[in-house]
Amino acid sequence: MQQPDLDISVVIPLLNEEESLPELTQWISRVMQMHGYSYEIILVDDGSTDHSWRVIQDLSAVEPAIKAIRFNRNYGKSAALNVGFKETRGEVVITMDADLQDSPDEIPELYRMIKEQEYDLVSGWKKKRFDPLSKTIPTKLFNGVTRRISRIPLHDFNCGLKAYDQRVVKSIDVYGEMHRYIPVIAKWNGFKNIGEKVVQHRERQYGTTKFGLERFVYGFLDLLSITFVSRFKKRPMHFFGTMGTLSFLIGFFITIWLIGDKVFNSFYLHQRTRDVVAQPLFFLALVALVIGVQLFLAGFLAEMISLTGSRKNEYLIRDQIGLLPTHV
Ligand code: UDP
Ligand code: MG
């Protein structure tokens, strides 16, 4: 792992943003130099099909702070962030979108909040948004649900502009659509000092949005797995074992009762008078026993899998600039 030896790393995931890149990187450099920060700009090209990589090559030739990674195909924003995070050398890590909707002028204040106010993470809040209604309404809903489930009082979980203490980004692994829940993951990892800063939001200048409505479906499923995984990843048996044992016990006691009924009252399952109660109970017991054993087994398997660890964070990288060739 890299030791932090710079003030700030800016990580920018991008997909087909060739028009915005020159203006964006120049603006960032200007802000950094004005405040005298040592910095790096890590551009992660998430499988662009336009000339983004060409533009990045040209830009990195004149600005040595630019480093870049190019994926072999589109893996998604989370993957891009994840790989970018691994390379960061800054004490403070800032993420922003490549489409110029986030302003680099926010960087100094975000940096100050992490360094001086000792926040682990500061999330941008696009209080005044410049997006169509079809996007702002579902976003409100999404934020409400996430706020409630995670108990983190943020207004805008999905804001691309965020600042982190270096320790936070090195501790998290994001994939799928999970970039929306980085504050939640950070909190689960023990980084509870989460702040918020109102940031300027601008209209998209070039290109189009890369996310459709499916983002909300995937996003919701990811929230479920995050809540579940973070709670039980290290001890799946606690969840499955409890449920399994409970179900098994229910089945077991019903069976005992049915046997007792037979022995002491000499009722048999086929006797019509008791059928109404005994027969459903018999099936209930059967189902409960089977489900109980199943859950127990699932817990057992999950326990074994969590021991071997998962390998889902491997992305094929096609090219990179200014970084040690660890991936190629
Ligand atoms: N992005 C990416 N990979 C993807 C989709 C998006 O790297 O698969 C980048 C995109 O280029 C931009 C950022 O993620 O820099 C946010 O995307 P976008 O602006 O389209 O989202 P919106 O602002 O509409 O939520
Ligand atoms: Mg955008």
TrEMBL record:
<dbReference type="Pfam" id="PF00535">
    <property type="entry name" value="Glycos_transf_2"/>
</dbReference>
<feature type="transmembrane region" description="Helical">
    <location>
        <begin position="280"/>
        <end position="302"/>
    </location>
</feature>
<feature type="transmembrane region" description="Helical">
    <location>
        <begin position="239"/>
        <end position="260"/>
    </location>
</feature>
<keyword id="KW-0808">Transferase</keyword>
<keyword id="KW-0812">Transmembrane</keyword>
<dbReference type="GO" id="GO:0004582">
    <property type="term" value="F:dolichyl-phosphate beta-D-mannosyltransferase activity"/>
</dbReference>
<dbReference type="GO" id="GO:0005886">
    <property type="term" value="C:plasma membrane"/>
</dbReference>
<keyword id="KW-0472">Membrane</keyword>
<dbReference type="InterPro" id="IPR001173">
    <property type="entry name" value="Glyco_trans_2-like"/>
</dbReference>
<keyword id="KW-1003">Cell membrane</keyword>
<dbReference type="GO" id="GO:0099621">
    <property type="term" value="F:undecaprenyl-phosphate 4-deoxy-4-formamido-L-arabinose transferase activity"/>
</dbReference>
<dbReference type="GO" id="GO:0009103">
    <property type="term" value="P:lipopolysaccharide biosynthetic process"/>
</dbReference>
<dbReference type="InterPro" id="IPR029044">
    <property type="entry name" value="Nucleotide-diphossugar_trans"/>
</dbReference>
<keyword id="KW-0328">Glycosyltransferase</keyword>
<protein>
    <submittedName>
        <fullName>Dolichyl-phosphate beta-D-mannosyltransferase</fullName>
        <ecNumber>2.4.1.83</ecNumber>
    </submittedName>
</protein>
<keyword id="KW-1133">Transmembrane helix</keyword>
<dbReference type="InterPro" id="IPR050256">
    <property type="entry name" value="Glycosyltransferase_2"/>
</dbReference>
<feature type="domain" description="Glycosyltransferase 2-like">
    <location>
        <begin position="9"/>
        <end position="170"/>
    </location>
</feature>
<keyword id="KW-0448">Lipopolysaccharide biosynthesis</keyword>
